[in-house]
Amino acid sequence: MPNKTTFAVPGMDCPSEEQAIRMRLADETSVQQLRFDLDARQVEIWHEGEAGPVVAAMQTLGMGARAVGGTESEAALPETEEARQRGPLAIALGINAAFFVGELTAGLIASSMGLVADSLDMLADALVYALSLAAVGSTALRKKQLARSSGYLQLGLALFGLIEVVRRFVMGDDLPGVTVMIVVATLALVGNVVTLLILRKAGRGEAHVEASWIFTSNDIKVNGLVIASALVVWATGAAWPDLLAGAFIFAIVANGARRILKL
Predict the structure, then answer these.
(1) Residue 214: CB partners within 8 Å, gap ≥ 6?
(2) Which of 9, 171, 206, 240 is the most buried (most CB within 10 A)?
């Protein structure tokens, strides 16, 4: 029968502290399961035996952790974080895969580098969610390896996009379809907001879920940029705002990859 000890952790106010706690407790063989509440700055720890070793481990982190309410005996372990992560990640994968196809098609029809760039970003995200699903239930080392792979993937797509932007600047490009750009980018923005809401159910802090959150947050910025560039194309009657937007999008993509590789 497992025991549960709840800790108040005043210094835990972002996913980086949560990840530090996970890494520290990974070496404690008595720890069976963790559940975090960043808003309340609390963590529930299910463990075998006495709470002493767990309390000592938490205190070494320097976040002011202290046990509250004593240790309680539990009849069984609650639903695992892995089980909660699978559903949201699968839905996010479906959303991003669908928008990749839709945006790529619309971008080619409208001759918009911004939409093509956004579609490739959606593809990167879809692959990231696939990697995240593969990471669910894996070891901490495996999760980090998959998060790193997704970072390299996004970096590669960013470099490919920048090369394409340069090619279009040199070769010239048709005026993109403004209406298509605005409509499709707005729909993609709504899709990404929905994805973020879904990812909240998966919980943040795990390296692979954090990677998914960062990528989707970047997408919302990208969608807004595509809409803004479409308005400038309409105002100027020139294609260069769309190409500049594409270049900037891939810079954002590359920065997202850099952040993931630092996790």
Answers:
(1) 256, 259, 260
(2) 206
Tokens of 18: 């949560």
Name the amino acid, one letter, at 174.
Answer: D
- Angle among Cα 63, 66, 67 to the nearest 5 degrees reads 145
Look at the alpha carbons of 25, 31, 36, 40 in this order and tell me if their dihedral is positive or negative: negative
* 26 DSSP 8-state letter: T
**pTM score, two decimals?**
0.58
Mean pLDDT of 5-12: 89
C-alpha distances in Å from residue 112, one per residue of 51, 177, 209, 227: 59, 7, 31, 11
Could you give all domains of the chain from N- to C-terminal order, each with its CATH number? 3-73 (3.30.70.100), 81-262 (1.20.1510)
Write down how long the chain is.
263
pLDDT in tens, 130-169: 776 776 655 556 666 766 777 788 788 888 888 888 888 8
Report phi then psi at 73, rounded to 5.
Answer: -85, 135
Q: Which residues lie below 8 Å from residue 39, measured CB to CB, with a gap of 6+?
A: none
